[in-house]
Amino acid sequence: MGEAPAFFVDHLENGGHTNGFGLKSEPRDKDTSVQIGDRSYLIGGNHEGNPLFLGVQIHDKTTNKWCVSIPTVLGTGPKPCKGYSAIVLKQGRILVIKKGSASDDSIWFLEVDSPFVREQRKLLGKEVVAWSKGVRGNAEKPIVISGPSGVGKGTLITMLMKEFPSMFGFSVSHTTRSPRCMEKNGVHYHFTDKTVMEKEINDGKFLEFASVHGNLYGTSIESVEVVTDSGKRCILDIDVQGARSVKASSLDAVFIFVCPPSMKELEDRLRARGTETEEQIQKRLRNAEAEIKAGKSSGIFEHILYNDNLEECYKNLKNLLGINDDAPVNGVEVEGINLPKEHTVTKIEDKIMIQETGEATKNDLIVLDLASINGGAPGRTRGIVLDSVKSS
Ligand SMILES: Nc1nc2c(ncn2[C@@H]2O[C@H](COP(=O)(O)OP(=O)(O)O)[C@@H](O)[C@H]2O)c(=O)[nH]1
Ligand SMILES: Nc1ncnc2c1ncn2[C@@H]1O[C@H](COP(=O)(O)OP(=O)(O)O)[C@@H](O)[C@H]1O
């Protein structure tokens, strides 16, 4: 796919425009706007009056009007700062650099027409943009684990998180089912009300959701972001319908399906767990057959694990995740680079050159390499390489 032309617009054309949502003044110096096709995206101010969220507004050149409503903003965006640079990338993405910020908070991506945004726009029936934060280093793909109730998904995930606490983090789902006696709100699930959850789904806060065994379950975008922001690899324990939705989204994940050795063993495990009523056990067993069939044949899962002997299965899980005794288990250490407040930005193929300007310039060139980035909203844009090149 061809790359959109990259250029900056310091002030929008057609000054003196009005809009229906209270942009009271002209774009200020610290705001920036970027044009893609017939649309300009003004990045600046704050979102719906909230001083903690950077605002985005859309101006349509063909009608010379601002889009009537503020776009629904998905993902957690950057906090407003002293100024921004922006540049158009491939696939309806805008790279936004916060001026004068530390590297762990300076590189952001605003998706305005990416596959994820298009899908959400269709789903929600409204204008959508989505933020994702640029994360440096070779962060690895999230892991989606599915399988019938009682097969041992939770047990395997607990083992992994216990052995590698700094490497893996669990995406805490929302559910409308009641908590079991040992389950803690916010740790095992966010236990929630059906009407509240349905409203949040409607507001675009969920990466995926599904009705499972008669209850609503879903992964909020925030639950994935919380884990990735902590520098950990995110694990999602979700059903096959949810895995299908994630597969169709822009979240680039590893998909694992866990099978029981037999239906009889599955039933024994469910009973032995002692967390469900007889009626619930029957429902879960009925659903298990269809789930196993879908898990094996849907083409969603690139790995099928049989959980017969637990230790054996755990070892196989670690192997397919590339964890063996010799591999380092911690994330990549990345030292900080501050992005200069006054700078120019140039794009050459996959490289973004950030050159400090102004009197106090040290003439260091910062190079942002986009060649190995992956992921994107929802979640994080990962694998960014940032280097400081001393000028001779
Ligand atoms: N789609 C989707 N499924 C989920 C989510 N969270 C949990 N599930 C699935 O819902 C099913 C029931 O989960 P749960 O009530 O905890 O029962 P358990 O699997 O027997 O421990 C399991 O298949 C989970 O993988 C979610 O956020 N989204
Ligand atoms: N390989 C295994 N052999 C025997 N019991 C197991 C095995 N794996 C898990 N279990 C037990 O089966 C029950 C269900 O496991 P759990 O992790 O809760 O399943 P899930 O999260 O898939 O619903 C638990 O009591 C767990 O201790």
Largest sheet entry: 10 strands, mixed
Helix proportion:
10-25%
- Low-confidence segments, given as residue ranges, are 1-26, 326-334
The distinct bound ligands, ions and cofactors come out as:
guanosine-5'-diphosphate, adenosine-5'-diphosphate
Would you tell me the structural class of the helices and strands?
alpha/beta
**DSSP helical segment count:** 8
Beta strand count: 23
Radius of gyration, whole Å: 23 Å
Shape estimate: globular
Strand content: 25-35%
End-to-end CA span: 37 Å
Q: Could you report the average pLDDT, rounded to the nearest whole number?
A: 84
How is the topology of this model organized?
Layout: E1 32-36, E2 39-47, E3 50-60, E4 65-66, E5 72-74, E6 84-88, E7 93-98, E8 107-111, H1 115-124, E9 128-136, E10 143-146, H2 153-163, E11 168-170, E12 173-175, E13 189-191, H3 194-202, E14 206-212, E15 215-220, H4 221-229, E16 233-237, H5 240-248, E17 254-259, H6 263-273, H7 278-297, E18 303-306, H8 310-320, E19 343-348, E20 351-356, E21 365-369, E22 374-375, E23 380-389
Parallel strand pairs: 5-9, 9-23, 10-16, 10-17, 11-16, 12-13, 17-18
Antiparallel strand pairs: 1-2, 2-3, 3-4, 6-7, 7-8, 8-9, 12-15, 14-15, 19-20, 20-21, 21-23, 22-23
Helix pairs in contact: 6-7
The structure holds guanosine-5'-diphosphate (GDP) and adenosine-5'-diphosphate.
